[in-house]
C-alpha cells in the first residue's frame, strides 16, 4: 500500500502531469468551443455566399427570359405599327408580307398570325394555326389581346410537335387608335428560348424552374417532366407558398419529395412569372461537412499528440520553443520576412499545412477549369461565342494596324435535326465533334473556329490581303472547302447520314464593327438557309 500511495502522490504532484492534464482539458474545452463557433460561422457565411450565388443565377436567368420576351414584344410592335392596313383585306399579300419579315427575324418558330376582331384567321405563316370561321373567338387570350397593348398567353402544347408553345399578341390599330386586328406570335421551346431554364444545371442536383404564379403551373423547368404541370398545392412547400404570395430572395425549404433544398426566387418584370434556382443542401453545404470533419480530426489528433509530446519531450522542447517564439516575434514585428509554412513533422501543424497546400492546388485547378468553361465549348472544345467575339475584336484591331482585311463566316448545319431526332442526342454530339474536326483541318492557326450555338459554327479568317477581290476569294475558298468537307457521309452505328451547311459571309476591314459584321454574316446565313429550304420544297 505504501508503494501505491507514493506512486499516486508522485503522479498527482508532478508538474508534467498537471500540465498535461491542464492541456488536455484546454484542448477539449477549446476544441468544443472552436468547433461550435466555427461551425456556426461557417454555416452562416456559407449560407450567405451560396444564397448570393443562387440569387445571382436566378436573376441572370430572369434577365435572359425578360430579354427573350422583350425582343419578341418589339418584333410584334414593329409588325403591328408598320403593317399596311389594306393588307387586312388581301390575305395572300398579307401572308407574303409576314413571311418576308419572318425570314429576316425568325423569332416566332411556331407561327406568325393575324386575326380579325371576330376571332378568325386572316393570314399567317407557320404550321401552328387553326383554320375556320371564328376559330379563336372563345379563346380568352384572343379577347384580352384586343383590349391590351401586349399580351402573353397561357402556355399550351403544340398538337403538331407535341411540345410547349407560348403565344404572344399585339393589337393592330388604325390612325385613330381603333383596333383593327391583332398579330399573334407562337414560339416553340427550341434551343434559344428559355435556354437557361430548360438546359441550365446547378451542380449535380440543382436546376431552374419558371413558374406562372397566377396560373400556378410550371412554364419551364430543367426537369422537362414538370413543364405544364401544376405547382405544389398550398402547404406542400412553404417557400413556394411564400413565393406565390410575393416573396423574392433565397431560403431553405423541403420540397414535395421530402428533400431539403436551397432555393432563390427572382421575378420576371411585367408578368406573373418568377424564376427559381435550386440545389439540394447536401450538395450545396458539402464543404461545411468536410470542414467540420477536418476540425474534429484536428482536435482529436491534438488531444493525442500534444500530451504525449509534452510528457516525453517537455524539457527537450524548451529550446526549440524559445527559438520558434523568437522567430515568430520577429516575423510579427516585420523584422524577418514571412515564409510559407514548412512541413518539418506530420503533427497537427503538418496535417493542416498539407491540407492547406492541397486546398490551394484544388482552387488553382478549379480556377483553370472555370476559365476553360467560360471560353470554350464543353463538347467540341472549340472557342465559344464569348471567346470568338474577343478574337474578332483582336482581328479588327490588327486590320487597323496592318491595313489588312478579315472575313466572318456564319455556318448552320443542314440535316442535323434529323440526326438528332432519328438517332438520338449522342449521335448528334458525335456529329458535332466530327464536324469540328473537319472544319479545324481547313483553317490556319491564326484563324478561329468557334461553336456559337446548337449546330452553329463561326470561322474568323484574319490577316487577309488588303485587296478586296483577293480577300473575298480567299474567304470563298474556305467556305467552299467547308461545304466539301461535309460531303463525306457520317457513320453512326453502321448507318451513313449526310450533313450540309448554310454559310453566310461578311468581309471586314479597319472601319468595320463587331456587331455589324455578326449581323451581316448571320443574316446572309439565314438567307442561304432559306434558299436551301425553298429549293428542297420546289423539288
Structural description of this entry:
The chain has 539 residues and is α+β, with helices and mostly antiparallel strands. The chain has 3 domains: 2-30 and 302-366, no CATH class; 31-301, Beta-Lactamase, CATH 3.30.450.20; 385-538, Reverse transcriptase/Diguanylate cyclase domain (Alpha-Beta Plaits). The protein has 15 helices and 17 strands. The chain has helices at 2-13, 15-82, 91-104, 140-145, 195-199, 238-244, 281-284, 286-313, 318-333, 348-375, 385-402, 416-423, 425-440, 468-485, 514-538, and strands spanning 111-116, 121-126, 151-152, 156-157, 164-173, 179-188, 207-212, 217-221, 249-254, 260-267, 273-280, 405-414, 448-451, 456-464, 490-492, 495-497, 500-508. Strand 7 (207-212) and strand 8 (217-221) form a beta hairpin. The chain is globular and about 115 Å long. 27% of the residues are buried.
